[in-house]
Amino acid sequence: MDTRVDFLRWLQNDMAFNILVNLNDPADIVHASGVSRFWRHFVITNELSKQLFLRKFPQLSNVECIIESKRRSTDTGSLGGAKWELCKKEHSVYASLLQALNKSTLSSRSCIEKAVSATSTDNYPLESIIKTLIPRDRFNDTGSYWSSAGQNNPEIPETLIYKLRANVCVITEVKIQPFEAFFQQGKPIYSAEFVRFRVGHPNSASIKEKELVHLPLPLPADDKFVWTYTSQFFPMVQENCLQEFKLPEPILCIGGFLQIELSGRVQRQKSDSLFYICVSHVRVIGHPLFPAFDLEILEPSGNVLLKYYPEALRQTLQKTSDSESNASARVLTLDEVLWGTDGLAQFEWNYDYVYDDDEEEEEHMGP
């Protein structure tokens, strides 16, 4: 005779919830929901997957609602059919999202798609933010870098904004290389003192559709975004190298845009005694979660609608597994590069391009 006892049935609901809500591994929640029908019902109705997700990403509590592209068979249980179906849907979405997040941190790739804007540019478009997408400090026999405008006050910050490869991305680290002015006496390095990062989405769908089409923008665009996450400040060293800024925990970017804030100017330019910040290259490391997850900005509230496509989850996880092995063969491409008012030029490059590190500029130019 089977005498097994389900201890969860013997506990009061509050006590059982206080025990299971402390599960920190998404796999543990999935395993708990598979113990029995009673456990599954308890896990789903108490939104344990959602609770874990919001503990990891509290800045995303403003997600208004979730759409799952395919409806699945209903099991009303002890709840009304509509409420039970809603609970099941949210459990499925948050559990799948947590699975994708855990998987994507195992391998990573560059997540930047386009440069959007900078708070200031000293010599636009020759020193545009678009230059930071080139993984070299020299391109076509000239310096390749973004330069801020000069300032008397070294405390005035600068920001750079980038569009990521998908509306929903996991970000694990950001890499930044300050620019060494090899054509100036002493080869000064125009780094910042500190850096921090924000992720978010446009204020409205109309801004994304109308104002964020032809990139990069010639003017600052910081007021066009809602930032849902802000990192701590990281110290930057005054060295000509690709510096890694690893986030304490992977962050989920809902909206597909990242802002880099550069604070503290450490280098004056001798010719005008002004402080500048110059960056030669930026990389954002993580993994896009499209096509399994996408979003839509709701009007007029500006809130976020998260979309989940379960049939694409396997494809997304497979891309995550394959991305690291294919990274060395990846060729970086810029579709649009702005060269003043004459229009757009197209070019591409790869990491095997050979540069002469000893070549010098014939024409002196400053940041």
UniProtKB/TrEMBL annotation:
Matches recorded under InterPro entries: At4g00755-like (IPR055336), F-box-like_dom_sf (IPR036047)
UniProt superkingdom: Eukaryota
PANTHER family according to UniProt: F-BOX DOMAIN CONTAINING PROTEIN, EXPRESSED, F-BOX DOMAIN-CONTAINING PROTEIN
Protein known as: F-box protein
